[in-house]
Design goal:
The structure is a single chain. The chain is of the alpha/beta class. It folds into two domains: 267 residues, 3-Layer(aba) Sandwich (Aldehyde Dehydrogenase, Chain A, domain 1); 183 residues, Aldehyde Dehydrogenase, Chain A, domain 2 (3-Layer(aba) Sandwich). The chain contains 15 helices and 22 strands. The strands form six sheets. Strands 14-15-16-13-12-18-19 form a seven-stranded mixed sheet, with helices on both faces. Strands 9-8-7-10-11-21 form a six-stranded mixed sheet, with helices on both faces. The chain has a three-stranded antiparallel sheet with strand order 5-6-22. Helix 6 links the parallel strand 8 and strand 9. Helix 2 packs antiparallel against helix 4, helix 3 packs across helix 4 and helix 9 packs across helix 10. It is globular and about 70 Å long. The termini are far apart. This is Aldehyde dehydrogenase DhaS. Belongs to the aldehyde dehydrogenase family. Pfam families: Aldedh.
Length: 472
């Protein structure tokens, strides 16, 4: 762990293993932080805050750009570390996750020198009124296991750019890339205490959320945990941002290019073995195209090559843990019990590791749990609809607790945009997989979260506005 200027060894602290999910083998032993460790990390961040917030913006930008340069220099190492610890194929870690980390730091470094307030002519004589945008203080960044280093960068880059200090709690399943990124932050010249890392399970995150020295919590993870964090933050009046679960609908209209829709939905549904909060998982297909779509989707899913993420032939890696593999399998068995038709997949793959066959269900109805609950695995549900009833289609797509992402496949841009306007989701994609960019706001509606990451929304999330009044 990193607390202040010190790398903390286990000593007499408890430890826990991190596994390579493709083999099940232990690749590292990590420290289970105790309450004293969390308290020390928060105090280290608090002690560093005033000096870090006072650094001139150009210097803060220079340091963030230096972090980006170091990540780029170590890109291959970081990608291989991420693949080994999380399981995602190397083309995802090296081609998507690590480049996004680099872009996040470079994009937000630009904001460090562009934070502005406003002046207003108030209706009081002889008064000068202006505002300043200022950092919040110590921010707790609690990250998930599906894209560990990338989703950390979504939080860390804007938090640092705006002058905050941080304590990071990575998911216990996938802490290694976070620790390495913290090393690179120190190597870049960030002062001691600006970035701190504590490792461990849910009790560590809970201690951070409850700590009185934490001003802001930024959490990505399950809706269930997000609700607990929001309740705790509400009682203590902490700032909070939550990026939570999803159950993204994919609407395939009668005039859609079916081959393009199949290819895009395979990418959007099976990326990272379906362990994506914005994964396309329930497919509303115009009835006249449903059989064709299902047949081609199932064929594409069955053709996926499963294997270790470091193997260049691999298209689909393992699930992150034995527990996640069991969870996915329990939903597949539930789908069968509910009456859905299993078209392909439906079982764990043979051999070592936590692999699961990509699975396609047909004959799914809106009320089935596989159509309503987040599975976080390679399980895809096809749900036909009567294509002349657009309003009913939108109501069905919106009939979920979640509202993170959605996609529409149509060659009629008027139809696609009309549906997009009515869908209740934070991001709606038209004829494309769920891509991300540091400049584009990201977050959910309903039970998919509070607030937004990326773009200026991230700057607002890590700052507050101060009013300054001067008598003339």
């Amino acid at each position: 762990m990193l607390i202040g200027a010190d790398w903390i060894e286990a000593g007499d602290r408890a430890t826990f293993p991190s596994h390579d999910p493709a083999t099940g083998k232990v690749i590292a032993e990590l420290i289970s932080a105790g309450p004293a460790d969390v308290d020390a990390a928060v105090h280290a961040a608090a002690e560093a805050f005033d000096d870090w917030a006072a650094i001139v913006p150009a210097e803060r930008a220079r340091l963030l750009l230096r972090v980006a340069d170091l990540v780029e220099q170590h890109a291959d190492e970081l990608a291989r570390l991420e693949t080994t610890d999380q399981g995602q194929p190397l083309p995802i870690s090296a081609g998507f996750a690590i480049p996004m980390v680099i872009n996040q730091f470079r994009y937000h470094a630009g904001w460090a020198t562009k934070l502005t307030g406003i002046t207003v002519d108030v209706s009081i004589p002889d008064i000068d009124y202006r505002t300043r945008r200022e950092p919040l203080g110590v921010c707790a960044l609690i990250t998930p296991w599906n894209f560990p280093i990338m989703l950390l960068a979504f939080k860390l880059a804007p938090a640092l750019a705006t002058g905050n200090t941080v304590v990071i709690k990575p998911a216990e399943q996938t802490s290694l890339s976070t620790i390495r990124l913290a090393e690179l932050c120190r190597e870049a010249g960030l002062p001691p205490g600006v970035v701190n890392v504590v490792t461990g399970g849910p009790s560590v995150g809970r201690a951070l959320v409850e700590h009185p020295g934490v001003a802001k919590i930024s959490f990505t993870g399950s809706t269930e945990v997000g609700r607990e964090i929001a309740a705790t933050a509400g009682r203590s009046l902490k700032r909070v941002s939550l990026e939570l679960g999803g159950k993204a609908p994919s609407v395939i209209t009668a005039d859609a290019d079916i081959d393009a829709a199949v290819a895009g939905n395979l990418m959007g549904g099976l990326l990272n073995s379906g362990q994506v909060c914005a994964a396309y998982t329930r497919f509303y297909v115009a009835r006249r195209k449903a059989d064709e779509f299902t047949e081609k989707l199932a064929a594409g899913a069955a053709a996926q090559v499963l294997g270790h993420g470091l193997d260049p032939k691999t298209q689909l890696g393992p699930l992150v843990s034995a527990e996640q593999a069991e969870r996915v399998d329990s939903y597949v068995r539930l789908g069968e019990a509910e009456g859905a038709t299993l078209v392909t997949g439906g079982h764990r793959a043979d051999g070592d590791g936590y692999f699961y066959q990509p699975t396609v269900f047909a004959g799914v109805t809106d009320s089935m749990r596989i159509a309503r609950e987040e599975i976080f695995g390679p399980v895809l549900s096809v749900i036909p609809y009567e294509d002349e009833d657009e309003l009913n289609l939108v109501a069905r797509a919106n009939d979920t607790d979640y509202g993170l992402a959605a996609v529409i496949w149509s060659t009629n841009i008027r139809t696609a945009n009309r549906i997009a306007r009515r869908i209740r989701a934070g991001s709606v994609y038209i004829n494309m997989p769920p891509l991300l960019d540091p400049a584009a706001a990201w977050g959910g509606m309903k039970a998919s979260g509070l607030g937004r990451e990326n773009g200026f929304d991230a700057i607002e999330a890590f700052t507050e506005v101060k009013s300054i009044w001067t008598a003339l």
